[in-house]
């Protein structure tokens, strides 16, 4: 215990800095100071004094999230439709002329592609595309986290936006080739996602926003960031549908290349460079653990409670909750589009409006309502907390160090409660999809589902508070990457789920 006391005393200057920072930002960032454990810093890792960034910078990060998500979203709706057309043409190339007057033409006698073989093949191709994107995204996640630690968050973000432009160039070739070969080229283009793609840019932006926002405001900032991304996605879906209807199905793919290059220019010109951590790791084994840090985030950790060392499984259970929540509902957006296209005859424009409404309302909720709910919930939780009778086990450093208490950190109790309530609400509202019988009801479902949002942002905020305000940039990056890793694995698991549901609905 003497050793722990000595180390605690050595951290007192930094604790004082954290306390002062919290007091300075109390009027701006809502939250409750609560007794939370502080990690023992290993000898080779120094705790850096956080820099105070101007408030305007966070809005530049939000604008960057909007532009990048807009670029990713433009081809999403046309991609579903172009896969359907390419599959249809490939089918009739192999099977000859279109059958006339058969039951397989239902529900549309004028749509030669509206037969079960084509619809199920389209669903399978889309599921394979999504699965490959997620698999390569998992690898990209580790590469992005390592790049952030080595070269900094801005150069890493630039890489994550530049390589998708290259991927779109390859997809344009696939769309020009057309047919089954074109589908194969588009699917193989996802290999580029290993170096730069959606998973990496999400992690880079999440890391960026946590670097420029004070400790107490990170959960709300992560929610606003997710809302900005959804705004971009919503306008991207709508813009992609309108451009496809007005200028042809190939036009959105060409437009997206220009948008990605514009997003690269924005990152290079307007976002500041945040240097990486100065900590040097020379031990090869520790270098390996540093690269695979996101895998260790949710491992059971030790903490001290009443002079007794215990293990904490809260982060592990949180990870399972996020995983199961996405596994249950993560395929819903794609399935809504497939169902609307194949049962109600939605074209790219109608699907664009459908997903635009869904993403726009979810973005509005996360940007404006979510931070208010977090602030209100924390203030109500503050009144119920007996500060002298509680403990908060947090994620220790990756070396398994024990933890001790620090009263200068914010509570994560309500953030965790919000995560649980959001998961429950998301599942309950998803049941509404069972009652859809007409096309206009698809829009009603898309308008109601967004109000269960915020699970991912609340989970990230909870994990960041488990890490603690004295954690370094590398630890925060690993924590964010850990949650993103769980989300991606869950989305990967939903692809077979999505395909099986789609084939059943289209049978």
Structure, explained:
It is a single chain. Strands 1-4 form a two-stranded antiparallel sheet. The protein is globular and about 80 Å long. It has helices at 2-25, 55-73, 76-95, 116-151, 153-177, 179-188, 198-212, 218-247, 251-270, 284-291, 293-296, 314-329, 332-343, 348-384, 413-430, 439-448, 455-467, 473-506; strands at 33-39, 301-305, 308-312, 403-410. A hairpin with a 2-residue loop joins strand 2 (301-305) and strand 3. The protein is built from 18 helices and 4 strands. With 507 residues, the chain is mainly α. Mean pLDDT is 77; it is low at 1-49, 99-108, 388-393, 396-410 and 496-507.
* SS elements, strand count: 4
Number of helices: 18
Task: Summarize the helix and strand pattern as letters.
Answer: HEHHHHHHHHHHEEHHHEHHHH
Termini gap: 67 Å
The average pLDDT score comes to 77
Low-confidence stretches: 1-49, 99-108, 388-393, 396-410, 496-507
Main sheet, how many strands, which sense, barrel? 2 strands, antiparallel
Q: Radius of gyration in whole Å, from Cα? A: 24 Å
Strand order of the largest sheet: 1-4
Shape: globular
Structural class based on helices, strands and sheet pairing = mainly alpha
Helix % is: 55-70%
- Our estimate of the beta-strand percent is under 5%
What structural keywords apply?
two-stranded antiparallel ribbon, 69% helix, mainly alpha, 507 residues
């Amino acid at each position: 215990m003497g050793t722990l006391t000595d180390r605690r005393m050595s951290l007192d200057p930094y604790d004082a800095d954290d306390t002062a920072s919290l007091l300075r930002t109390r009027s701006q960032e809502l939250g409750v100071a609560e007794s939370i454990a502080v990690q023992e810093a290993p000898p080779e890792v120094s705790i850096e004094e956080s820099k105070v960034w101007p408030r305007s910078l966070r809005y530049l990060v939000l604008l960057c999230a909007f532009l990048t998500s807009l670029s990713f979203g433009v081809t999403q709706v046309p991609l579903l439709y172009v896969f359907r057309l390419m599959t249809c043409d490939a089918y009739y190339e192999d099977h000859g002329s279109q059958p006339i007057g058969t039951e397989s033409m239902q529900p549309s006698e004028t749509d030669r592609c509206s037969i079960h073989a084509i619809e199920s093949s389209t669903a399978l191709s889309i599921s394979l595309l999504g699965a490959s994107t997620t698999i390569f995204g998992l690898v990209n996640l580790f590469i992005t986290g390592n790049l952030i630690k080595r070269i900094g968050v801005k150069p890493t973000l630039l890489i994550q936006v530049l390589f998708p432009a290259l991927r779109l160039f390859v997809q344009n070739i696939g769309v020009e080739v057309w047919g089954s070969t074109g589908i194969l080229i588009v699917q193989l283009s996802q290999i580029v996602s290993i170096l730069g793609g959606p998973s990496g840019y999400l992690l880079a932006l999440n890391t960026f926003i946590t670097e420029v926002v004070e400790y107490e405001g990170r959960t709300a900032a992560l929610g606003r960031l997710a809302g900005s991304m959804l705004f971009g996605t919503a306008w991207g879906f709508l813009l992609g549908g309108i451009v496809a209807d007005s200028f042809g199905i190939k036009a959105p793919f060409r437009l997206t290349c220009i948008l990605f290059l514009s997003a690269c220019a924005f990152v290079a010109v307007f976002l500041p460079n945040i240097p990486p951590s100065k900590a040097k790791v020379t031990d090869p084994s520790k270098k390996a653990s540093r690269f695979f840090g996101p895998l260790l985030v949710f491992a059971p950790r030790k903490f001290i409670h009443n002079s007794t060392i215990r293990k904490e499984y809260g982060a592990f259970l949180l990870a399972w909750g996020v995983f199961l929540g996405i596994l249950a509902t993560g395929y819903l957006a794609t399935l809504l589009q497939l169902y609307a296209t194949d049962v109600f005859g939605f074209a790219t424009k109608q699907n664009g409006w459908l997903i635009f409404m869904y993403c726009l309302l979810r973005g509005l909720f996360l940007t404006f309502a979510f931070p208010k709910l977090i602030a209100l919930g924390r203030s109500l939780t503050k009144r119920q907390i007996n500060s002298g009778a509680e403990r908060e086990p947090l994620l220790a450093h990756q070396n398994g160090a024990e933890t001790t208490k620090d009263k200068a950190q914010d509570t994560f109790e309500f953030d965790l409660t919000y995560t649980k309530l959001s998961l429950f609400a998301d599942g309950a509202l998803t049941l509404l999809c069972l009652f859809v019988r007409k096309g206009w009801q698809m829009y009603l479902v898309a308008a109601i589902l967004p109000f269960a949002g915020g699970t991912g942002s609340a989970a990230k905020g909870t994990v960041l508070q488990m890490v603690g305000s004295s954690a370094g940039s590398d630890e925060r990056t690993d924590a964010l990457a850990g949650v993103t890793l769980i989300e991606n694995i869950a989305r990967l698991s939903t692809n077979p789920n999505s395909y099986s549901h789609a084939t059943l609905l289209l049978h």
